[in-house]
Design a protein that fits this description.
Strands 3-2-1-4-5-6-7-8 form an 8-stranded mixed sheet, with helices on both faces. Helix 8 packs antiparallel against helix 13, helix 13 packs across helix 16 and helix 15 crosses helix 16. It has 2 domains: about 170 residues, NAD(P)-binding Rossmann-like Domain (Rossmann fold); about 190 residues, N-(1-d-carboxylethyl)-l-norvaline Dehydrogenase, domain 2 (Orthogonal Bundle). The chain is an alpha/beta fold. About 50% of the residues are buried. The structure holds nicotinamide-adenine-dinucleotide. The site of nicotinamide-adenine-dinucleotide has 24 residues, from helix 1 and helix 4.
């Protein structure tokens, strides 16, 4: 099967590499020739490095599997198209409608969108039953998780086909309902937003919150370091999209602190400054390693994360097993949040949320009904 990839940016190039390494011929199309040339060069470089490290036998052989096209007409013989262009619904819809005119009737059309509705993208096609979401994580060749998101119009028979293909590509697929943020970008929101909130309230500074989450919580990166790494142009925009898509549910409310960084162009590591200043010679702030304070920070953020995971389970966004896989493979959490809930105790988690709810009188801290039921019945979640 020939795989077509639309968009040769960070995600498109990564997905193209994954498909080629799984044995497919891959056609990459981008409407920006400069981006296309850049992707061609960087893919060749990456494959060369992989050969030097002994991870692949022949970079040349893999390079032969790629073609780079400046016209969508090149997709005629493709069996699968994966779109990874700019995160704009109007543009994605136009591209899907256009590509459908070129490909065969049996070609599967997938979007790598992080936060837009797959149903809405599918509606741009005359045959929406062949459209679904295939959400890879960055960098696509490294991150195992792929969220498969059927639109409400998607042919149910397509789901096992997509799942099998992702397994063949060496990926770990999970199935997610077409709801804002799917699994990872929904459940992970409090990791960022509650950390910012704690900082805004002056309870602790960024370095201390990062320290608590990594040293006491076992997360690979603290929230501020991670947001700076992802970039506020991506991380803030996802938060805002999830918030508006959830009809302004306060649980997903973005913060002014992060919005201001975006407005200032302080995008994080890539621009040399974000929450932290990465300029040479600038010393990173030191955390306050007070374990009592650190534990309070960890428990507050963790209670919010667990609540999101439990609520996603309650609303059938994904199975319990897929929720656990998504958070451990998509954002490398040290353990699944449902398992964490069981270990910590649903009652303790609920107590934490309810005490915040009573203290703040904000809907942001409302507990999922499933968490409440599990806590009252003293039952385990998984
Ligand atoms: N970057 C991430 O961490 C990440 C992770 C998962 C999903 N995504 C999603 O993947 C998609 C792409 O993200 P990215 O980070 O690779 O973006 P990017 O800006 O690196 O690349 C986008 C590419 O699409 C091209 N493009 C834009 N409009 C086009 C059009 N109409 N036709 C053809 N090509 C067009 C651009 O020239 C550019 O090369 C987005 O939907 C994003 O939400 C991003």
């Amino acid at each position: 099967m020939i795989v077509g990839v639309i968009g040769s940016g960070a995600m498109g190039a990564g997905i193209a590499q994954v498909a080629a390494m799984a044995g497919h011929r891959v056609i990459v199309y981008d409407n920006n020739t400069t981006a296309l040339v850049k992707a061609k060069k960087s893919l060749a470089n990456t494959l060369q490095k992989l050969q030097e490290k002994g991870k692949i036998t022949s970079a040349d052989e893999l390079v032969q599997r790629f073609s780079f096209a400046d016209s969508i007409q090149a997709f005629q013989g493709c069996g699968l198209i994966i779109e990874a262009i700019v995160e704009r619904l109007d543009i994605k819809k136009a591209v899907f409608a256009e590509v459908e005119q070129v490909v065969s009737d049996t070609c599967i059309l997938a979007s790598n969108t992080s936060s837009l509705s797959i149903t809405s993208i599918a509606a741009a096609c005359s045959n929406p039953s062949r459209v679904l979401g295939l959400h890879f994580f960055n960098p696509a060749p490294v991150m195992a998780l792929v969220e498969i998101i059927p639109a409400i119009q998607t042919d149910p028979e397509l789901i096992p086909v997509a799942k099998e293909l992702m397994l063949q590509w060496g990926k770990t697929p999970v199935i997610a309902k077409d709801t804002p943020g799917f699994i990872v970008n929904r459940v992970a929101r409090p990791f960022y937003s509650e950390a910012i909130r704690i900082c805004e309230e002056g309870i602790a500074d960024m370095a201390t919150i990062d320290w608590a989450m990594t040293e006491l919580g076992g997360f690979r990166m603290g929230p501020f370091t991670l947001m700076d790494y992802i970039g506020h142009d991506v991380n803030y925009v996802v938060t805002e999209t999830v918030f508006t898509s959830f009809f302004f549910d306060p649980r997903y409310k973005p913060s002014f602190s992060q919005k201001r960084l975006l407005e200032a162009g302080w995008l994080g590591r890539k621009s040399g400054r974000g929450f932290y200043n990465y300029a040479e010679g600038v010393e990173m702030p030191a955390p306050n390693k007070d374990v009592v304070l650190g534990t309070q920070i960890l428990e507050r953020i963790l209670a919010m994360l667990i609540n999101e995971a439990v609520d996603a389970q309650y609303l059938n966004v994904a199975s319990a097993a897929d929720l656990e896989t998504a958070m451990t493979k998509g954002v490398n959490y040290p353990k699944g949040l449902l398992q964490w809930c069981d270990e910590w105790g649903a009652d303790k988690c609920l107590e934490k949320l309810d005490s915040m709810y009573h203290e703040y009188h904000e809907d942001r801290y409302r507990a999922s009904i499933l968490l409440r039921k599990q806590a009252i019945g003293n039952k385990k979640i998984v």
